[in-house]
């Protein structure tokens, strides 16, 4: 946090939503920030290397393309490391977290269709011999406004 | 909006993010045989249709100092899920709010909310304030704090056409 200056904060905060659909979007950002395009690019590169920026990209509406689900497992603590690594190894798994609960492993599976998602869940259940809870989204209630950053 | 193969290819190519290059739409298009102008126009249409919910800089909470997050799950009566879901989803403390199926026995929760904070105490304080303010503290709920992140990246939807 300490190494972020005012321009970094604007880069992180002001362009979460309406990224310019302009052939040179970073130049359009640069113009708004009063800096050079090359500086926008070098700052974003640095923020990405640090991990502050995941990517410049799109958040796709769930189920608009393909299918996804949230899955949960109760993994014996001794196996957790191993099972988590196995789960992360699937290209279809994009988030994988340990949570402090009996159900201690939570991950999101996304693929082209319901069958492909089910196949991954079945495969994980078969390889581990553990139950995999399938918790697909039924309805979304929040409005995705990105992440409003509270800087102070 | 009806999605065709070109849209799906574009969405799939976009999953890894835009290049940090002066002309990222050109770079993206080149990989899938689409010219820069078509990439821009299709992205515009997908964004307008709400298929692309947002296009922009995607930040990681954790690296920004928001080290704690809890998935707070609620067991509320079926006929109140929609109303409570809308209310919780509109709360500034809540970044995600989904209805998901109960899996009985063992998992009675049907409403999932995500709360971020700088540390666990801040998340707990946010949750307590929210539960009180929205009048939901009497419904059974649990806060599942994440203790370790094994993987986090954008979803990759691989279109059938590209995968086969």
Automatic annotation (TrEMBL), chain A:
Molecular function in Gene Ontology: lyase activity
Catalytic activity line of the entry: siroheme + 2 H(+) = 12,18-didecarboxysiroheme + 2 CO2
Pathways per UniProt: Porphyrin-containing compound metabolism
InterPro entries the UniProt entry points to: AsnC_trans_reg2, HTH-Siroheme_Decarb, NirdL-like_HTH, Tscrpt_reg_AsnC-like, WH-like_DNA-bd_sf, WH_DNA-bd_sf
All copies of domain Siroheme decarboxylase NirL-like HTH, residue ranges: 8-52
Domain spans labelled Siroheme decarboxylase AsnC-like ligand binding: 67-141
SMART domains xref list: HTH_ASNC
Its EC number(s): 4.1.1.111
Record flagged with keyword Lyase: yes
The UniProt record lists the keyword Lyase: yes
Origin: domain of life: Bacteria
Protein family per UniProt: Belongs to the Ahb/Nir family.
Protein name as annotated: siroheme decarboxylase
Species the sequence originates in: Magnetospirillum aberrantis SpK
TrEMBL record, chain B:
Keyword set, alphabetical order: Lyase
Regions that span the bilayer: none
Superkingdom as given in the UniProt entry: Bacteria
Domain Siroheme decarboxylase NirL-like HTH: 9-53
Family stated for the protein in its record: Belongs to the Ahb/Nir family.
The keyword Lyase appears for this protein: yes
Matches recorded under Gene3D superfamilies: 3.30.70.3460
Pathway: Porphyrin-containing compound metabolism
InterPro entries associated with the record: AsnC_trans_reg2, HTH-Siroheme_Decarb, NirdL-like_HTH, WH_DNA-bd_sf
A Pfam family that the UniProt record links to this protein: AsnC_trans_reg2
Keyword Lyase in annotation: yes
SUPFAM superfamilies to which the protein is assigned, alphabetical: Winged helix' DNA-binding domain
Enzyme Commission number, as recorded: 4.1.1.111
Organism: Magnetospirillum aberrantis SpK
GO molecular function ontology, one term from the record: lyase activity
Identification of the protein by name: siroheme decarboxylase
Lineage, opening ranks: Bacteria, Pseudomonadati, Pseudomonadota, Alphaproteobacteria, Rhodospirillales
Residue span, Siroheme decarboxylase AsnC-like ligand binding domain: 64-151
Catalytic activity: siroheme + 2 H(+) = 12,18-didecarboxysiroheme + 2 CO2
């Amino acid at each position: 946090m300490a190494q972020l200056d005012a321009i970094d904060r604007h880069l992180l905060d002001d362009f979460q939503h309406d990224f310019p659909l302009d052939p040179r979007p970073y130049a359009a950002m640069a113009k708004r920030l009063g800096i050079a395009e090359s500086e926008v690019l070098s700052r974003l590169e640095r923020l990405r290397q640090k991990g502050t920026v995941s990517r410049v990209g799109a958040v796709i509406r769930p189920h608009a393309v393909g299918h996804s689900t949230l899955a949960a497992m109760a993994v014996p603590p001794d196996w957790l490391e191993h099972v988590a690594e196995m789960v992360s190894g699937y290209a279809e798994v994009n988030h994988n977290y340990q949570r402090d609960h009996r159900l201690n492993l939570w991950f999101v599976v996304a693929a082209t269709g319901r069958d492909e998602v089910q196949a991954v869940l079945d495969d994980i259940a078969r390889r581990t011999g553990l139950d995999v809870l399938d918790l697909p989204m039924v309805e979304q209630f929040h409005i995705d406004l990105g992440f409003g950053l509270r800087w102070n | 909006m009806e999605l065709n193969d070109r849209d799906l290819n574009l969405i799939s190519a976009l999953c890894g993010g835009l290049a940090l290059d002066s002309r990222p739409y050109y770079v993206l298009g080149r990989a899938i045989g689409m010219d820069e102008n078509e990439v821009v126009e299709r992205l515009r249409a997908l964004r307008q249709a709400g298929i692309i919910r947002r296009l922009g800089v995607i930040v990681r909470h954790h690296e920004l100092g928001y080290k704690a997050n809890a998935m707070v799950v609620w067991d509320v009566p079926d006929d109140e899920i929609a109303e409570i879901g809308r209310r919780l989803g509109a709360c500034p403390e809540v970044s995600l709010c989904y209805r998901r199926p109960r899996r009985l026995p063992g998992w009675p929760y049907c409403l999932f909310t995500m709360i971020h904070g700088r540390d666990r105490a801040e998340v707990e304080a946010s949750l307590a304030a929210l539960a009180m303010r929205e009048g939901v503290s009497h419904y059974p709920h649990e806060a599942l704090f994440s203790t370790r992140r094994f993987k986090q990246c954008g979803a990759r939807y691989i279109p059938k056409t590209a995968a086969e």
